[in-house]
Amino acid sequence: MPDATDRRTPRDQRPLALAGMLAPAVFVLGVVISGLTWSGYEHRTQNISDLGGTEAPQPVLLNVTLLLFGLLVVTFAVALRRGRADCSRAPAGPLLVGYFGVTAVVQGLTPCTPGCAEGTPADLLHGLAATTGLLAVALGMLSSWWVTRATPGRSFHSGLSAWTGTLTLGLLVAWLIAAGVDPQRLDAGVLQRALIGMALIWLAATAVQLRQATPRASGHRQRLHGTITSQ
Question: DSSP class of residue 118?
Fold first, then answer.
């Protein structure tokens, strides 16, 4: 009789892994379209959250984008946990990625004032979710590097995880400094987009790797199962 591990083959995670490929596209498309609806919006200095904030002309566009993006990331985190055996050595990695998705949902549900600067309850919750979510996904990337650094055939993804995780942490610090000092002079909007871009690149690359790896693992399991039953 097959056990629970046999029933949950890596191939089963391929539809869920697709969410990791769709999430970056959804986010970028939502930000671009939202920006086009606001004449005078400055991507260089303004936060992305401003597009869904209290003064945005079409805030629903970005807020729905954040909700959908967050749900896709949570779905991908489930696939990551189920589809990669090395995650059993560091289960916090998928949890951190899932938390990143949850914080995106929270941000979509809490539109804030420009720059979240007025200190309203929505501002505080939105800002906390944004900061902790980006920190979590950076740590998730580094966790992925840690568990795959010595795994044969994963040198590219391991290196990508190390670099994107490290750059995300650095850019997060730079963005927080710029936002608190002078967003106009220090290009806080550019810094924020760069650090989120690191997360989007990692999500897409990890999803592609997971979808490519699981069919081979499934085929291996099927061959192994056939060998066992024939004995």
Answer: S
Are 127 and 106 in contact by the 8 Å Cβ rule? The answer is no
Range of the domain at 88: 13-226
CB–CB of 202/164 below 8 Å?
Answer: yes
> Does residue 4 lie within any of the structural domains?
no
Does the residue 3 lie in any domain?
no
Residue with tokens 């399991």: 221
Within-domain flag for 8 = no
Are 203 and 76 in contact by the 8 Å Cβ rule? The answer is yes
Q: Tell whether 6 is covered by a domain.
A: no
For 174, residues 6+ apart whose C-beta sits below 8 A from its C-beta are 191, 195
Predicted TM-score (pTM) of this structure: 0.83
Q: pLDDT of 34-64, one tens digit each?
A: 999 999 999 998 999 999 999 999 999 999 9
Residue 217 token pair? 């693992």
Give residue-wise pLDDT tens across range 119-143: 899 999 999 999 999 999 999 999 8
Whether residue 13 contacts residue 83, with contact meaning beta carbons closer than 8 Å, is answered with yes
User: Which of 123, 202, 135 lies closest to 173, judged by CA?
Assistant: 135
d(CA 25, CA 32): 11
Instruction: Specify the number of domains making up the chain.
Output: 1
- Strand blocks (E) in the chain: none
